[in-house]
Write a structure and sequence with these properties.
Strand content: under 5%
Oligomer: single chain
Number of helices: 7
Helix content: 55-70%
Distance between the termini: 8 Å
Shape: globular
């Protein structure tokens, strides 16, 4: 089945099948910060709706997108995720450190993040940071993308279609 024909629920199932090591149905402890499962789910939903993969270049775009596409009323750590992760990756780049097996120079890190910020500014309707995921699980991805004006980056769903 093509990703355009998927509901959000089916897209998430495909996304988790492609990423079996991801935390599901439980909070995630990151140092002293506990990220509630509902917020992790919302983040994963945004991967599915935007089509961004979990590769670092795509993740940089997604966190930039989330900074500007979500309503401004949101949990404080949503801002930290966007700014702190970006600054951490930029700092690593300035020190010449690679991200996994890929090195991104500082201008690439900034360019990727800004691409996401710009895309987030183009949404027709701001995304409610507190949306109950169950209210949209059975909506087709094409409808969600159309309602909000989100262009599909096709990074995760194109790869999953190739495996079928």
């Amino acid at each position: 089945m093509k990703s355009e024909d998927l509901t959000l629920r089916a897209g998430l199932e495909r996304y988790y099948a492609a990423n079996p090591n991801f935390v599901q149905n439980q909070d995630l402890q990151v140092g002293r910060l506990r990220i509630p499962w509902q917020d992790l789910l919302r983040h994963d939903i945004m991967h599915v709706v935007t089509g961004y993969s979990t590769q670092l270049d795509q993740e940089l775009r997604l966190i930039g997108f989330l900074l500007t596409a979500l309503t401004w009323k949101r949990p404080w750590y949503y801002y930290a995720q966007s700014f702190v992760v970006f600054l951490e990756l930029l700092g690593m780049s300035l020190r010449g450190k690679a991200f996994g097996d890929q090195y991104y120079n500082p201008s690439q890190v900034c360019r990727l993040y800004i691409q996401g910020v710009r895309q987030g500014l183009t949404v027709r309707q701001k995304i409610n940071a507190y949306i109950d995921p169950e209210t949209v699980m059975d909506d087709p991805l094409t409808k969600l993308r159309s309602d909000y004006g989100i262009a599909n980056a096709r990074a995760w769903d194109a790869a999953s279609e190739e495996r079928e």
